[in-house]
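Researcher: Re-running this chain for the archive, since the previous output was lost when a drive failed. Same request as before.
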Amino acid sequence: MATASYNDYKQVPIFRRQWFFWLSWIFVTPLIGVGLLVTGDVYYKKLGEVRAFGVANRIVAGLLGLLWLGLLIRALTAAT
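Model: Regenerated structure tokens:
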């Protein structure tokens, strides 16, 4: 996991914080979370350091987002 360019978690914009990422992922749509990861890093605090999501987090989020999109398309096409 890469160390972020921020010295303090309070410097990280709200829409780039881990809690915002997960809330948007769970309660709004995973596509917003994938959009956040595509356009930049998502940061979290661990052991007093600010860190960014790694490649594995991006891959898992992308795959889950694609799965969610596939299930949504399947549900919409089955209803017609």
